[in-house]
Write a structure and sequence with these properties.
This protein has 258 residues and is of the alpha+beta class. The chain has five helices and eleven strands; from the N terminus they run H-H-H-E-E-E-E-E-E-E-E-H-H-E-E-E. Helices cover 14% and strands 21% of the residues.
């Protein structure tokens, strides 16, 4: 959870909803497939969006200090967020899979995909999360894998719960899983979020609504897949990530935004 400016905390959900509706009405088919960096309903974007020219980074210099990833460093068990603890995590087990593709639809193999998420109660296992919901001692909420030759990634995890954040009064984030894709160099890292179908909080959430194109927003929502579902074990969701082109998946320009 990230705090909004102090002056914004008295803003009500109704005021935020009105702002969201006004911006959507002004959209009128304009380009809106990526989130607006300056989006007033997302209160802290007023302070956080870039106002200066981008700074060029020397990839060679960054690689000297950045972590190095290789197949030997990623164990298959890293993709099972329900394993590695004394007991079973609490919540609905889910399988999340999909394909990483480029603009032409070709699979992108051997890419590091990381995820992190809240537990079933909507609590992150992180010291900065002070939401008064229980911490699950058997769930850390982080995982990673490498994409297969056909671009497939796959995780076994627990369906996260929604959680409050300090954007405005009674603000709640829809249930979501954060995804990170590293590409071929550390400077190419992309971060996005996957949501679940039918969430009643979609219309109230300024982060989700900052993509003003309703068709583009749907690309962030996974599809329930009954064939993927494990009998008497875990429900299945399928979600593809497109890296470029007109169908590309939204990515956060500045990392984790809540």
């Amino acid at each position: 959870m990230k705090a909004a400016p102090e002056s914004a905390r008295a803003v009500s959900q109704l005021e935020i909803t009105v702002q969201i509706a006004r911006i959507a009405a002004d959209h009128h088919g304009k380009e809106g497939t990526q989130p607006r960096l300056d989006y007033p309903p997302y209160r802290s974007s007023l302070l956080r969006h870039p106002r200066s020219p981008l700074v060029c980074v020397d990839p060679d210099e960054v690689e000297c200090w950045a972590p190095c990833f290789g197949r030997q460093d990623v164990d298959p068990v890293d993709a099972d967020l329900t394993a590695g603890h004394p007991g079973e995590p609490i919540g609905e087990r889910i399988i999340v899979t999909g394909r990483l593709r480029d603009a032409t639809g070709r699979p992108v193999a051997g890419q590091l995909v990381e995820i992190w998420q809240a537990n079933a109660a909507g609590r992150y296992n992180h010291q900065r999360d002070q939401h008064p919901a229980p911490i699950d001692p058997n769930f850390t909420g982080v995982g990673r894998c490498l994409t297969e030759p056909d671009g497939t990634y796959r995780f076994l995890t627990i369906k996260p719960g929604p959680y409050p954040w300090r954007n405005h009064q009674n603000a709640w984030r829809p249930a979501h899983i954060h995804f990170s894709v590293f590409g071929t160099a550390f400077t190419q890292r992309l971060v996005t979020q996957m949501y679940f179908p039918g969430d009643p909080l979609f219309g109230l959430d300024p982060i989700f609504q900052s993509i003003v194109d309703p068709v583009a927003r749907q690309r962030l929502i996974a599809t329930y897949d009954h064939d993927l579902t494990g009998p008497e074990y875990a429900t299945g969701y399928r979600w593809d990530i497109v890296l470029a082109g007109s169908r590309r998946t939204w990515t956060e320009p500045n990392g984790d935004h809540g």
